[in-house]
Structures
1.
Amino acid sequence: MSLKTEVSFTLNGRAVQVTVPVDMNVLTMLRDELNMTGTKYACGEGECGACTVDVDGETINSCLMYAVDCEGRAITTIEGLRTADGLDPMQKAFVDHGAIQCGFCMPGMIMQAKHLVAKNPNMTDDDLRRGLEGNVCRCTGYYKVFDAVKDVVRGTAEAAE
Amino acid sequence: MTTVIEKDSIIGKRIPKPDAPDKAVGRTRYINDMELPLMLIGKILHTDRVHATIKSIDVSAARALPGVHAVLTADDVPESLKFGIARDNIPLKGGKVRCTRDEIAAVAAETEDIADQALKLIKVEYEDLPGLFDVHEALEDDAPQIHDDRPGNKGLAYSHHSGDLAAAEAESDIILENTFKVHYVTHCCMGTSAVLADFDADGKLTIYSQTQYPYNFKMDLAPALNIHPGDIRVIQPPVGGAFGSKLDVYPFEPICVLLARATQRPVKLVFSREEEFINAPTRQPVEIHLRSGVKKDGTMTFRHVNSLLNNGAYTSWGATTPYVMMRTFSSHFRLQAISYDAQAVYTNNPYAGSFRGYGNVQATYCTSIHADMMAEAVGMDPISFGIKNAQDEGEVTPQGAVLNDCVFAELLKIAGEKTDFVNKMKTYAAERDKPGRIKRGIGIASSIHNAGGAKIHKSDGCGTILKLDDYARATIITGASEIGQGIDAVLCQIISEELGIPVKDVTVVNNDSAIGPWDVGVHASRTTFIAGNSAQRAARRAKEQILNYAASRANVGAGELDLRGGHVVQSKDGVSVAKLDKVLREMHFKEDSELVMTTDYYEPPSEPEGENHVGDMSAAYSHAVHVVEAEIDTETGVITVEKITSVQDVGRIVNEMGLEAQIEGGIIMGLGYALSEELQIEDGYVRNPNFRDYKVMTAPEIPEMELHFVESQSSTGPLGAKGIAELPTIVIAPAVANALYNATGIRIFNPPLTPEKVARAIWERDQGHAQAAE
Amino acid sequence: MESITQPGIEAYEAPASIADAVQVLARGDVTVLAGGTDLTVQVDAGRITYGKTLMNIRRIAELQGVSEAGGRISIGALTTVTNILDDDALAQSVPVLRATADRFASMQIRNAATIGGNLVNASPAGDMIVPLLLLDADVELASWRDGAVSTRSVALKDFFTGPGKTVRADNELLTRVTFAKPAAGFAARFEKSGPRPALEISTVSAGVAGTLENGVLSNVRVVLGAVAPTPLRAAKAEAALEGKTLDGDTIAAGAAAACDDCTPIDDVRASAWYRHHLVRVFMERLLTDVAEN
């Protein structure tokens, strides 16, 4: 059995404390210890992006980050985007544009898309495609995803006017 | 106050998938996410050999590990219980292993870690046997035998012959002859393979499965378990992609059930990505020797095909792909004669299943490249050549497919016009030998596919139960499975259209074999067509029932009424007679009431193949033409596909957004097949079981796509629709290969067209030129 | 033979200073965790087994960030690839670092992967190693000696000894990488194989640097990745180019010499033939680009 340690951090705006094996990754902690199964395992090697979460304003592959390293940090997962008013605008755009088919890659894709818009609201088409390079989708041809993100970018720009 | 409701239609609109919001917020629970009380984790020990005798297997230490509830080997499973298409597979292998996938032991433990540890404690002694990996070697007289009861290592065989081949050859002015070797690729479903098995106290099995064919799945699973199919209940939680990979029973499924039976606890088994790459089915690799004949005037004469399928160690649907391949070889272009033979050959490689396009991806790679070569050989452009040879409306193919609602020639014409194909092709060809490292090319490919199911079983049908409740909400219980492709939205639309209720007021239930009526499965581009027809018929029955009641109530003829906008209206002017929910309540809440609950079973007007594989096996056929425009870096060999123009006969657009999604996704899957995806198998082992080295298409690599939907209005499809999901994947790779030829003069007969392969071919050609010049 | 009874991790440490960290290292049998992007994969593949202590160094502020002093630029070991990509000042003075960072894996990996990790991991295909070798960088290694932090500097070109192997001793922590701020006129270029823009383990990566004056290239550095057990400075190519007029003949000679410098292998990603071929192609392209710009 691996050594365990306690880790405290903010998860989707709420303080959490959890005891984890020191070699456990964030993905396993979220899914197995905290029952937050929205974040998906699909490769375990940082090659597909299905496990993307936001840590302190940067997206990472949660399969590669160690749970112990969450100490003191703020983590946002797909479950954290939804508000009392309903779907986050990015989630809604993905639904409305038909970007979701089997949906397995989508939590990671949506987290990354949110991050891209937050980081650069004026992104070009190339920035968008490059920004999603680490998120594999096997169902769509990615265009519906592009359309959804662009729609949110337009909405954000209009709201800022 | 008078309410007037105009006639409206939801068909052709852009309708989001009803399950998308839950998927977007991370609420959807796939099997991978599920947990039942007292659930154990199952793990499989796969062999590390490719062909060996098992001398001993010692599981005592694994059994003794705390937290381990069961360790099973072949000794715990009667060997007579064989399953699979050719009944050559068993859940746990004893005696001998035949490929790197072979399952030799399985563990159920309280945690994944314990299960992993237990696997490491199992000691196996082997005596290696010579391995067979090449089909030709496996066919040699003195080759080792992989299965004692499959002499000569021969698996399934298929042939179709029609027309006078000798005469057709004699009439040909040009005969082309090439050997194509099409490769291993795999589905790469984002959700890895998963299953959860749970027995009730009465010994009945509930299996949470990703299967694409829940009803026959029971029949196929039962023999592996020695259980009655009727005692199996299949629940289908949402699935993280399928693409044909889940159309058979694979050993991990019965193994998980055996663990659940042994422990009397629910057991869940989920593959890691590495396990998925090694153990999930592949697309069928084939070596195809193709001879094609053509007359000087561009009339095609014959195709003569000999193919060898590397069957791997066991038989799944991959070995049956000749069934579809021969249809492509014998059709879409008119032939005087066709000779088709295919033989599956057992080797110690992994084995193939069905995969979107099912044989047709392989066949079309050959036919579309040969079409390009023939056109050039007779001095025609590929569009004119295609149109000259394209089969027409009403024509019957040599295998008996009746091409109703056929617009193939029109598709070719549109593709040519929309892309300025002929001019571009000439321009690029003229640039080919000029200096410059970047070359441009344009290429075309086309094919046919079944678009109204495929009668490979006794039935190709689908059942529907439709229920209307007292709020005028409809629940459609259908046999058809949802695997992300979007049948949920399509069925909601069809019910909405027929019953005049909002699309959001329709609920689809299709995830429990104890509730749903029979369906043959989600495959063969059949679901919109078959399940759609059944849904429409069930809805029309319900509508008739409602209108009859409403007519008697209003003392008018039922023919004068219609359902629109949640009301029963007068058809002539849309004036509301009553609100639909009120009518339904009246129908339900009375003595001798009649529930508005209808059923339908739709069996398409198709027939199973008879002798010589002749039969009109689909209720509709469709064609697609793709044009690829690409830039080739002649030094690095990188092909950058810049634009894909897709022209496809879709019958009729039902859900435009879902249609686009399926076609775009299908194209990109085909593009991966063309350019980068290859499961590298060396001496039976998978060399690249990860996304680092098995490269699927990513966002920056996606070309511009221009989609043209041609609506042929199928006379048999629901509202005129045809099945659409496979053709986009089928016709991409040869279009890329033909574009490469247009740009460089290089033909590649063994996809994928990787940078190295392209660079090497160009380099060798240039070396040859240099030597010739010396 | 993998032992089921391996002891596993017995201690977890997350020091806040270099001094604390090197004292942990001094105990021996420590696995260092930084961004985690390589460690997870290596452990899963069985290439790394955890030591008795897992030490997370991400809390050490001293290891963060980019600074400049005395004409030298210092990049802290924990600086992420995204930090480098987003650093406008760094991109101004050393454009090749941004150009390379832009071709590094995916954004999620760039957000986590650190410079120190990329160097210590010592992959023959490690992309960030290439520009740092072009810059003739040194790495600083800290250890605990006689009750104090002691450091030594090692030239990066001497740092790698084989795939996954470096001269770093088990008790040493890589703290930063430093290099002289390039003088005006210094040009450096990076190229790696595609077709994806970045999320590719390089089949071949290549870098060329030097100062071009009046058409003559001097102070030449040529670096090749994924074509030898370590990323390498291509000595023959450098000799073929040094002090020469950068014309077509020189470029061809430099590219040919680079092919002689490397010893690529056949593997799942490419054949040795293709790697040789790409080295020549990339060298010609990079040198042509230097000559033309």
Note: Chain A touches chain B through 56 residues (CB under 8 Å).
2.
Amino acid sequence: MRKKRLLLTILSVFLIVAFFTGCACMQSKPTEKNFKAPVVTLDNMEVVHSFGYWYFSKKVKPTKGSPDNVGAPLDLAFTFNVENPNKFPVMLENLKFSVAFEDFDLNTVSTDAAQFIPPGKTNQVRVHAHFDVRQSLLSLLVTGGFKLKEKGTNAWAALEKWWTGIPKYEIPIHVKGGAAVFQAGGVVKVAQFNATFP
Amino acid sequence: MQFKNRWSKILLIGLIAGISIGMSSMAIAADTIKIGSLNDMTGATSDVGKDYALGIAEAIHYINDTGGINGKKIKLYQFDYGYRIPEALTKYSLFKRMKCAAILGWGTGDTEALAPTVAKDKIPYVSASYSGHLCDTTKTPYNLFFAPDYSTQVRGLMTVWFEKKWKQNKDFGKRKPRIAACYMFASPFSSSSIKAYKDQAKVLGFDVGPDQDVSLFAIDTKSQVLALKEFKPDVVLHTNTVMSVAATLRDSYALKLGADNIIKCWGFDENLPKLAGKAADGALGCSPWAFFGLDVPLMKEVTKYAKKYNPGIPPEKRTIHTVQAWASVLGLAEALKRADKAGDLSGEGILKKGFETFKDVDIGLGIAPVTYTPTDHRPQSEAKVYEWTGDKFVLFGSADMKKKWPEKWEKEWLGW
């Protein structure tokens, strides 16, 4: 009797596993041909933290801690909709993009936090991009000198404009060269995206 | 009792299933090699750092797609540190915590700050800083890179110019050639090869003019160029990055300085002619790797993976820094394969049974053969020099410092 019960339990577990495996197998198999690249669109850009506009050189003695060249941070979060048009689930492996303030690329951010997107569904991905005045200043000074001069401005003026205007959503933020890597059944697809907000 | 017995059997089945699942995930973990990558995509070197970072990720995809490390996949953890040293230290601690087998580092700042730590922790650190003093294994045993060090680059540039340009000059044999250098005095990166430059000037018999302090941020260098005009150099050495080199070339052209220009690797990429225009014509630069898209072994894969994984970035915007990143990854992968074959993927194993077994290893991409020994981490003795001419980069010449000056190479030049 006990043996029979045990046998029944094992059989039930086996049947449940077989049922779910069967369901999974009934979904269409991804191939290079039928795997459509999911569609990535920018849903929203949020100024998560803004601390105003300021910069201290290391010549300035701080109230506490050690002096350094430091500037105001700016934390932006980008929320993307990722729509899976396929009849099978796909895994988002990586998503990356550059962020530009006006004509100046200032950051390239990415996320490797993998997630599955069910067939025909849309997931959301939120990626933070951190900026600070010091780091953006160096980036502008080393690379953007000629371009700033052509525009009749300079690095400090540009930074002040961005750090005061972006928290008010007055300055368009560009998402450039976006690429999201998807995988399903060993097949890889890459989706491109670009956007401007607001 | 019967109830207890039944549940203990179910528990047993569950336990067996759990162990099986656990073992399979352990097998997955054992088949993965974790690699950390520190990149600058936001800071002072992001103009070149971004392309390098993209190249790292693309090259890792290539390695994984072509069999991985003897069947083991690489899992890449890639982080931006914005060229901020404190953040590089933080990220390093994370890599260590995640048990990364090796690290792909970036610039002089993070590489030098981390050199004592990686030596203590025995974690191989493959950087894109090519400073000569990272080659002395008594000081920095776990630092490696895939390019001639900056000093070898500068010695090579001067030698190639001397042999191929100066020997054609009407004044050759009548007087010494005159050389001067433009660089940011306060920058450890820019000034790292100046001692070698002055030494090589003695070796080749140059007259050395006054050094010119050119900021890495400079867009106007007229005062420095006017000062150079008094010295009348035949050739000017540039060891800054692209924008300030372009500014100096533009002002030299406008003020008719009339000297040739020789440029270290970080000042000589696809953006130089875009920024300097006609003033870049005839410029010579040390480029250890082929430029993006040139016809050399493996370049087709480089361009294919760039297109596949970053389709939104047009090929004309990709640069030599992608190729440079591939060289670092391919070199690291070769070391990992050798260490894995020897059954030792510890940091020490990767160094001793991997990198330090390299003898004239050809990793493709137009780079010179690579050799590491336990006492010498100068990977290459040959400096390849390209010329920007007719709107393209053309291989102009090369100089093998070890072959030309074997005794100096062996006894004098290591570590600076």
Note: Chain A has a mean pLDDT of 90.
3.
Amino acid sequence: MRKIFLIFLFLVGLYSKELVITKYLENMPNIIVNYRGVKPVEKILKMDFTVLNHFNVKYDTNETNNTAMVFDISYNKSKKLLDVKYLQHNNLVLEKRYKSTTYAYFPFLVHRAVYDINKYFNMPSAKFLIRKVVYSILTAPKEASIYLSDYTLSYKKLLITGGLNIFPRWADVNQTSFYFTKYQRLPTLYKFNIYTGKLQKILSSQGLLIVSDVNSKKGILLTLAPKGNPDVYWYKNHKLIQITKYPGIDVSGKFWGNKIVFISDRYGLPYVFQKDLKTGDITRVLYQGKNQVGVDTYKNLMVVSTRETNKAFGDNTFNLFLLNQNDDSLKRLTFGGQNMFPNFSVDGNSIMFIKREHFYSKIGIIRLNENKIFYYRLPKILQSFDW
Amino acid sequence: MRKKILFTAVAAVFLITGCSKQPSLENAQNANNNTMQMQSEQNQSNANESVNTQNAEVQTQTIPGAASVSAITNNQEFAKKVANIVIYFNFDKYNIRPDQWPKVEKLAKILKSNSSNYTIRIEGNCDEWGTEEYNYALGLKRANTVKNALIKLGVNPKKLTIISYGELNPVCTAHAKWCWRLNRRDNFTYLP
């Protein structure tokens, strides 16, 4: 009996990615973090290490027998200074100082410090920590404002207000500007620089105008409906190229290698389709679920939100699936609730999404390599976000 | 039997280790503050803020005659008539339901009776199910369907414009069937 059990475990170990990951997690570096300062900073610090999931962290302990890596982190609220000291056998190896002009900015200081610690140990990229988040939130009917935040949504700064301001999307990798749609007499696309405050009008269109994807080399994918039919358009060098021409609904265009994927109801319900840019052929991508309403791509990866139940009213289940173009594999990422609006991080290692369960919303972060999901509270329902 | 039990137990252990561990983290709300400033992003908005009272010299003008007042009243009445018509749709659909068709005919009649210069904005709306782009497209298709119907009934297409509010303009915010039904609708707004 024991032999059968061992053989089974051996076979599982051979073919299961999860077990490989578990072994990796068991070997995470042990570090000790001694923190001095106000509680909110400590809360963000602990959250960062938890979501990062690259270290076994012990906080505020004198125990040094199993590890030689000790970090002394302190925050001075009046000076808005975060100091990080790395000690090895009681010798100071590295010292870093992070400063902001306001106290409210401290989440970004903490994120940067943890990001630097992760980088110092050459651990896998964790750019999600230091990315800024732009999000739109409904404040009243026909009123939505755009805010800037850190990934925990702890920091909050109002950027755009007055009327409907929706679908913000970063315009560049360095996050200096973002696009958003403002509802005026016609929906109008603007580009806003968060450093200079410059507001630049790009174009306007009847009915619908949404930036779906931005690629610094390829251009922008938009959903436009100049004649009442929503279609995917490619905006490059001030020229608009119509990508889809179906008389129903085509939305959410995303670059995916030499293809553009989008959501279309050409089969009666919304599903993910792809258009080959060389041949012009349009084919369905995924046959999972009752419908597919949300999609995002990163290099060879695609994440799709699919409805798995078929209720006109009530608790439908929307789950996220990860598709790998290289090996045609499909992996279930979530297990229940309504998981929507998947959005890859800039390094492709994480996916941020919105989970709704019993009329409450949470932000979810999937750490793909670590095989874990972390949730935190979302006080209001976000209209959309980008990070 | 023992083999089966052991095998099930092993499978369960594997499932637990394979599934994602999902600790819940409470968001640090203490840090939220509308008026907080960023390092350099904030500087621009402070630098651009100024006040100048030179233009604040009020000129008063009395509105002459009754004609313009009655025109405003007429327009208001027309706008009210148009705004009172609401067309509802089925879940995930953008075709006009047979029971809603008489309202479309009534609206066409009202619009054709007014020959002045105006625009009617047909506003497509959706329920809370779906925050993705698709929901906005669905709202737009609802607006476009009614626009095409009105054109077929003889309304001048130049007087009609369409927009989608997705789920951003709910008339009802309860999480219930009857409420979602009220939000899947087209509204009509008079634009002078």
Note: The CA atoms of residues 291 and 307 of chain A lie 5 Å apart.
4.
Amino acid sequence: MTFLAPWAAWFLAGIPVIVLLYLLKVKRRQIPVSTLMFWQRVLQENRQRALFHRLRNLLSLLLHLLIFLLILTALAKPTLDAFLAAGSDTVLIVDTRARMQAVEDDGESRFDRARRLAAPYVSQANRRSQVALIFAGAAADVAVPFTGDVKPLEAALKAASATDATGNLDSAVHLAQTLLSSRKGRHRIVVLTSTPRSDTQPVVYLDSANAAYEPAVSYAFTGTARDNVAITRFSTRPLLNSPQTSEVLLEIRNFGTAPVKGNVELSLDGRRLEIKPFEIEAGGRKLDFFPILPRTERSARGWLKAQLDTADALPLDNTAYALVPTPQPARLLLVTKGNWFLEKLLAADLQLRFELLTPDAFTLPMAEKFDAVLFDNVLPAEFAFGKTAGNFLFFKQTPFTASGPSLEQPILTEIDNQHPLLRLVDLQNLTIVRASPMRLPSEAPEWTFQTPLRAFDEPVLIAGSRRTTTPPGEQRVVALGFDVAESDLPLRIAFPLLISNAVHWLAHESTPLPRSISTGETLALDPGQNVSTEPETDFPAKPGAMARAFFQPSRQGYYRLDPPAPGGANWVAVNMFSEAESDLRATATQVAATTPTAVAMPMMQRPLWQYLAIAALLLSTMEWFLFHRRRTE
Amino acid sequence: MDTATTSPIFDSAFLSKLEQLYLLSRKLFRGEHRAERKSKQLGSSLEFADYRNYSGGDDLRMVDWNIYGRLDRLVVKLFEQEQDLHIDFLIDASASMRWPETSDGSPSKLDAACRIAASLAYIGLANLDRVNLHWFGSSLQGDMGLSRGKSQFHKVLEFLRRVPESPGQTDLRTTCQTFARRIKRRGLVFVLSDLFDPGGYEEALGLLRHNQFELHVVQVLDPSELRPRMTGDLRLVEGESGMAFDVTANESLLRRYHEEIDLFIKDLGAFCLKRGIGYAQASTAIPFEDLVLKVLRDGRIIQ
């Protein structure tokens, strides 16, 4: 036995004081009586038992001394040498992977059981026998470094919960070995998990120089084989032939020993879309594809959620999250003195929302409030490249217009159909009465200009762009060097296509593909970009979900990127989708032969000093009782 | 008599109670007992008893001449001789009788004994018996002197007010021996005491019984000595001897004390019953009227 607080031995000096106090005569209360005759008779019998009387006195003294010694021993915090030798510097690895959320037959989750099993190890922590706590989730995380203080260990255990992430225990075991390698004495590693390590390779011990060094890796298993049904794949993508429509992929697997029937409910932005029945044989899977047309409101988020109605051991994988692309209508401002063709054309496009303004009412700061500004034969006097914010489309009067004679009936000789502005646009044999001569500016080096439409050496259509830092993004400008009314372009199918291509290109209208990642996967963030859970989500927001530079979600659900990445979606769907986590059929009993012996529960649930203190309290109570019964003096 | 002690026990309230007691006693004695006690001896009273033949030496004045005239025989008339009864009260004045020593006016055992003695003496005087009172402690301390008639009751009260201050430790045997030697006339003897004599009471009471005294014992006790409640580390000091005794009183010890004193009382009762001695236990907690009428009647001391 080792005393962790040997300073308590100084209190042994109090024993003579107790004996001295005990030997002091009791000041008796003087009571007059009529006769002592009967008292003498009564006490005569007691005197005959004088030996017992003396023994009673001795018993009283011994009781006091025993109580005092018990308190002193408790203060000295004794610890059994056997436990010290076996448990010096223990690393406790608690599995927090998604599989630990599985509920056992008795209603207790595997993680709660692991936490209960961990409590006795934690309570044994002291200065000579320190304990470190590692949570093994998506990655091994040292929750509490080596400490002899029970409180932080208990607090960390109490605050912990099983994550939605998948991972590997090997990294946690190796991390534990790394922690132990620099420490003296005997070590051990205790792993509290529901299932054994996936591999059967023995752990490679780091301290090879010391042959006697073999930190025992003990496994305490908290799970039994359970049936489970899980959504293993759930994603969306826009159809090639109809970008407005998304195609949904849904895969459900039965990790059980019996066929299973159920329904999967699909909801979009909280509204139920469909309930699809399914029936899967034992160990089988069901794969389903179906189209879905998202709404186009500005408030639409595109949250597509699948929910199984089966009751199984792991509810976590009965829910899956995906995002449906939700193109947002571009906001345009048309500055014109009146152009019937353009107005009708812009009004016909459901993906556009435009406002009309006369040239006199327009000021350049207005441009920042719109995705693009269209100038019909108007050029603001104060417009300058690099100094004016916003995206612009110019007709006839452009910033590129050069001095000189206009081009009479120009013939289009170069048409770049690969350019986004001219996608699906057929401009063959286009008749233009007159076009303005345009030149690329030489005083705007940060701009990149392209001329997808040319009449010999004269550009007829110019597209320019430049990267901006405040706000981060890209500024674009398009200039068409003729008046559409002085051509037959409005009468062609190419006209709406050209204008639509130009407007959507200016408004950055390339519909971003939704992002979906797995729990535990690392997401790189742009500078200044934050990630947060949405308050309206139906899963608990995880504290610390705010991050910079890198974000590793440990919970399923939707996460918002703020601000969204250029050209990317502002929402990220996070799912587990792990066969290893959903398949609960692998248990310790099946691989018991290849795993180390299971950990035996410590015999004593509490530190020894607590038992001594309880014994002292009980003895004090007994002494109090005996004193009042006058059994002791 | 050593010293005089003024006692508040014989106040006007007490005397009025005695007057009631007298009336009650008259009621009790009506038709059963006369004021004068008959004796078995023949004497010279006016009450005719019997005839007997004349023998030489008889007083000729006692010859019934009418019988001689009719029957020609000499017979002598015999008359009953009326005798008064001697009643002696032995009152224990030892220190144990002055307990409990309280200042709240509650009576001590000696107070109770004096009241009982006064009551009984009053009844005796009212019935024209000869009454005498004696203090005792280690031995007989002094007596009142024979008195007869209600008019002598003031002597009783006066005597009871003069309690000897240092009567010594109770010694019943010596007391009774002295009493038997001193009192030749046999009669009623009341012993009023707690009988807490380490030497025992059996020999003393047996001695009086042996000397043809009709004996009544009134044991005066206080509830606090019957059922003491004090616990803890105590130093018990006896009033009589001044001896101290250290005890650690607990419930077990008190229980055994109760058993011991109950056994003492039970033995005393059995002893008196076996020998035809009247016995009554008087508690200071019992009201005076109840004490005299109920307790003494239950003990066949008065009828």
Note: The first strand of chain A starts at residue 2 and ends at 3.
